[in-house]
Amino acid sequence: MTQGTLHALDARTTRPAEFGRDALIVCDNLVRIYRTEAVEVQALQGLDLLVDAGEMVAIVGASGSGKSTLLAVLSGQDEPTAGRVRVGRWDLAAMSRRDLVDYRRNTVGFVWQQAARNLVPYLSAWRNVEVPLALAGVGRRNRAARIGELLDLLGVPDVADRRPGELSGGEQQRVAIAVALANHPEVLFADEPTGELDSATTDEVFAALREVNRALGTTVVVVTHDDAVSGRVERTVAIRDGRTSTEVLRRPDEGSSTAEEYAVMDRAGRVQVPKEYREALALTHRVRLALEADHVAVRPDRG
Ligand SMILES: Nc1ncnc2c1ncn2[C@@H]1O[C@H](COP(=O)(O)OP(=O)(O)OP(=O)(O)O)[C@@H](O)[C@H]1O
User: Where, residue-wise, is CATH 3.40.50.300 in the chain?
Assistant: First the structure.
């Protein structure tokens, strides 16, 4: 064995595995800066996020925390300033215009908050779902089969002949989900899909999204400002100041389910200590860290 081969083997064994290699969605130190003449806004400030295929994840956070920017980047409508972002086989930081069209038409589906943005007002629900299928060149018979299947799955087969203006808010969003799913996307992105709905209708739309996730296996990423959402999905990721800050995981537990909140540690080992904790113990600039048998203690610097 030559010295060169040894070096090559050595390099291979010591190189760390690629971050998120097995995930469907990878955001690695994602940065998005908006520059205008007067100001510079850092909407995403080194955000890390992994989503596995088949997951349903809610993204929550205060207004301005970067939720919509994240979704815009992930869905190919906005470009990252720095960092790595991958969805399936697509590297979103390095896509040609042609790739983008392909990606947006076939890999991802999108639902907006405003029903008017999702649906064509003068077409029936049926025809609305037909538009993306026709654009993708799907034949008449297959189109009909797919539309029927989706309207059934979303619980709106009875409104097929009605126009959006003749539907309730919840029905409009369920038809919008059908439109977004028409071409079998791997991922469904929804930006505040229930923002204009009351809480009963919100439950209905979340139930529809869960059903899509369960029955079709579509990965669902839904942005919402509604904190109660962590009771409706298995994983809720909170964004603060353009970074992921905490996650709530809900696990089935003998019939009901339990939810537990976790802080997110970034790849450099940084964890954000909540403001209430910092204030309660006057934790400021310098703190003492101690490694205990099963936890790490953080103490104020009283010296
Ligand atoms: N096109 C833009 N030009 C300049 N600044 C922008 C632009 N889009 C977003 N921002 C800024 O980036 C930050 C993050 O905005 P973003 O819309 O992603 O937040 P959000 O969490 O979705 O908020 P909301 O819940 O209010 O929709 C905000 O400070 C916002 O003002």
Answer: 53-76+95-267
Q: Is any ligand 1 atom within 6 A of the Cβ of residue 68?
A: yes
**How large is the ipTM?**
0.94
pLDDT digits (tens, 9 = 90+) for 85-104: 999 999 998 888 899 988 98
Residue of the nearest CA to atom 29 in ligand 1? 64
Express each pLDDT in 197-254 by its tens digit: 888 888 899 999 999 999 999 999 999 887 777 778 889 999 988 888 788 888 766 6
Ligand 1 probe mutation, 32, 69, 114, 237, most atoms within 8 A of CB: 69
| DSSP secondary structure, the chain, as one string | --HHHHHHHHHHHHSPPPTTTT-SEEEEEEEEEEE-SS-EEEEEEEEEEEE-TT-EEEEE--TTSSHHHHHHHHTTSS--SEEEEEETTEETTS--HHHHHHIIIIIEEEE-SSHHHHS-TTS-HHHHHHHHHHHTT--HHHHHHHHHHHHHHTT-GGGTTS-GGGS-HHHHHHHHHHHHHTT--SEEEEESTTTTS-HHHHHHHHHHHHHHHHHH--EEEEE-S-GGGGGTSSEEEEEETTEEEEEEEEEEETTEEEEEEEEPP-TTS--PPPHHHHHHTT--S-EEEEE-SS-EEEEE---
- For ligand 1, atom 5, which residue shows the shortest CA distance? 34
pTM as predicted: 0.86
Ligand 1 atom closest to residue 71's alpha carbon, by position in its atom list: 18
- The finding on whether 87 has its CB within 6 A of some atom of ligand 1 is no
CATH superfamily of 53-76+95-267: P-loop containing nucleotide triphosphate hydrolases (3.40.50.300)
